[in-house]
Amino acid sequence: MRPDSHEIFGRRRSRNLGLGLVLGAFVLLVFAVTMVKLGEGQSMQGFDHSLRPSLLPPAEE
After folding, report:
1. What is the rounded CA–CA span in Å between residue 20 and residue 29?
2. Pseudo-torsion of CA 28, 31, 36, 41, nearest 10°?
3. CA-based angle 41:54:33, to the nearest 5?
4. DSSP 8-class letter at 55
5. Is residue 60 scored above 90 in pLDDT?
6. 45-52 long-range CB contacts below 8 Å, 24 or more apart?
């Protein structure tokens, strides 16, 4: 019997594969959300406690 053919190694391998797939799906989800937000042309600036004219709504005259 080979040392790496024990039952626990098979379980560990399948658990690692499942975790890898879940993490990969999460990365793809974050990437997709980022691409959609960039594609819509939304402002990606955040609030950092300083007034920036680019964040103000356009003035109606």
Report:
1. 14
2. 180
3. 30
4. G
5. no
6. none
Alpha helices for the chain (secondary structure H): 7-39
What sign does the CA torsion over 21, 25, 28, 34 have?
negative
**pLDDT higher than threshold 80 for residue 55:** no
Structure tokens at 61: 């005259």
Q: Tokens for 3, please give them.
A: 């040392």
Task: Compare 46 and 52 and report the one with higher pLDDT.
Answer: 52
Contacts of 43 (CB under 8 A, 6+ apart): 54, 55
